[in-house]
């Protein structure tokens, strides 16, 4: 079969002929139906710092995956041929595209422990997007942010993660305000159900935030969140737009701010996103492309031309 493989930094993906995977003990083989493209894929192509995370080279990348079971390995129970699953990239099995060959190929072998059932009524395109963007957003807002009904929540950044996080907070019963510098996407905030949108999280006078989730992470955005969060409120940092931030320790102390980072999530977070999707109330902004368009799709991500999530589908 054909697979898009990473060979080295600053080199394009190579369309290689590789052997079809076989389900080993505890594994299944998925016929891929959808695979998301991510900015971390762009980072892998551009930054040598990612190389240490790879189990081998060349390797088929693609860590946001959904598919149908077509082969079941020895010892796997409770799974049937034809079942649909998303693949969690944070289990002990490792991450597709890093620890083992990922989803930019028609088939993928994966440990059964990484599988999350996709409910009826949830399209595989959304099933794939939920395994990274959805998981990360749910973990930041619900698991680590503790957002609940009645909270007032700030969401910084309305990109692929922020749009999902903002909608999850709305569906959880919170009043949500969005900070986004790109005014072109402000209408999306209203569609999501946000109570207001502005360029900065500091631009909502009189609003007292219980939780602020920074999906941008540009240093100053985190600093502003710490400055304005209510006493004993929570600031969750997800974005890595900058790898350092200078915050006011005065604000941190006087506000007794619970400042925490959020990295990825778990199978429970993916399942939580699927539950929101199943109702039809969570429909992330997604653009689909074909398998042959994956390299160009990554270029579009690199150029900042994609809104929401970009997902490759398989015929």
From TrEMBL:
Keywords: Metal-binding, Oxidoreductase, Zinc. CDD domains: hydroxyacyl_CoA_DH (cd08254). It catalyses: a primary alcohol + NAD(+) = an aldehyde + NADH + H(+); a secondary alcohol + NAD(+) = a ketone + NADH + H(+). SMART domains: PKS_ER. Pfam families: ADH_N, ADH_zinc_N. PROSITE patterns: ADH_ZINC (PS00059). PANTHER family: ALCOHOL DEHYDROGENASE 1-RELATED, VACUOLAR PROTEIN SORTING-ASSOCIATED PROTEIN 11. Residues 8-312 form the Enoyl reductase (ER) domain. This is alcohol dehydrogenase. Its EC number is 1.1.1.1. Its cofactor is Zn(2+). InterPro entries: ADH-like_C, ADH-like_N, ADH_Zn_CS, ER, GroES-like_sf, NAD(P)-bd_dom_sf. The lineage of its organism: Bacteria, Bacillati, Actinomycetota, Actinomycetes, Micrococcales. Gene3D superfamilies: Medium-chain alcohol dehydrogenases, catalytic domain, NAD(P)-binding Rossmann-like Domain. It comes from the Bacteria. Belongs to the zinc-containing alcohol dehydrogenase family.
């Amino acid at each position: 079969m054909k697979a898009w493989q990473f060979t080295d930094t600053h080199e394009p993906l190579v369309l290689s002929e590789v052997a079809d995977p076989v389900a080993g003990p505890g594994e299944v083989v998925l016929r891929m139906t959808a695979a998301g493209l991510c900015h971390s894929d762009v980072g892998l192509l551009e930054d040598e710092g990612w190389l240490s995370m790879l189990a081998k080279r060349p390797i088929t990348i693609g860590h946001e995956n959904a598919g149908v079971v077509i082969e079941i390995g020895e010892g796997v129970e409770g799974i049937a041929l034809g079942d649909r699953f998303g693949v969690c990239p944070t289990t002990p099995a490792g991450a597709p595209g890093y620890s083992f060959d990922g989803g930019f190929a028609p088939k993928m072998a994966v440990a059964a422990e990484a599988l999350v059932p996709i409910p009826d009524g949830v399209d595989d395109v959304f099933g794939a997007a939920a395994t990274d963007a959805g998981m990360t957003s749910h973990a930041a807002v619900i698991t680590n942010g503790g957002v609940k009904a009645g909270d007032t929540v700030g969401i910084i950044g309305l990109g692929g993660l922020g749009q999902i996080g903002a909608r999850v907070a709305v569906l959880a019963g919170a009043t949500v305000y969005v900070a986004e510098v790109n005014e072109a996407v402000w209408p999306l905030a209203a569609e999501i159900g946000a109570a207001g949108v502005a360029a900065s999280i500091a631009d909502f006078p009189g609003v007292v935030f219980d939780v602020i989730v920074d999906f941008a992470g540009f240093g100053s955005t985190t600093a502003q969140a710490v400055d304005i969060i209510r006493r004993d409120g929570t600031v969750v940092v997800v974005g890595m737009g900058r790898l350092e931030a200078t915050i006011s320790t005065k604000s941190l102390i006087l506000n007794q701010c619970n400042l925490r980072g959020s990295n990825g999530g778990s199978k429970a977070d993916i399942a939580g996103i699927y539950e929101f999707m199943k109702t039809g109330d969570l429909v992330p902004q997604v653009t689909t492309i074909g398998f042959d368009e994956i390299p160009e799709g990554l270029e579009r991500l690199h150029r900042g031309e994609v809104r929401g999530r970009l997902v490759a589908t398989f015929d």
